[in-house]
Amino acid sequence: MKKKVALLTMRYDNNYGGNLQRYALYTVLQQLGCEVICLYIRDSWKEAWKETMSPAKQFIKICKQIIKHILRPKTFPRFPWEKENSLYVQATKITEPFFENYIKHTKICYSTKDLEKNVYKHKCEAIVIGSDQVWRKAYVLRYGLCTFFGGFIHYKQKIDRIVYGASFGVYDQEYTTVEAQEIQRVYKKLDAVSVREKSGMD
Prior knowledge:
Strand order of the largest sheet: 2-1-3-4-5
Number of helices: 9
Low-confidence stretches: none
């Protein structure tokens, strides 16, 4: 019987490099005799948009967008995050067919709860995290500090936790001492780790 593996990598978008590295790792795991399902992680546009500005600025921007929508409803969506989502849909017109045709994946996961739910739903015996800049704080923090260290998997669950080809993306330390200590507790539960650059070892 094939081992069921959940693959967690950078969120799907129109980045060609990200799509190719996902497909490469997905294919290699299949060649190793695993049944692979990709955890389809995505942004909640509303939440992602709210993170970038103060409540006052949010309110002003929403008001402006609603006025534009009233004046030209066909051109301007009602809320700012709907515009972002619309731009995203346009940007992924080329890459989405590839993702849909060649990567077996879950339904969209907007939170760590969704990720955890899908790992158990598909009865995965292992999770592989990587490759690419899955440990770059600026890219993945909105999903939770420890998500890409396997922190959303309950510690009592007997699931192999493997990180492959992870990168911090920068040479400078982005994590604070407190954040590093929090990550360390989760990191100790990993079964195997490899990193992309030698600087990652340090």
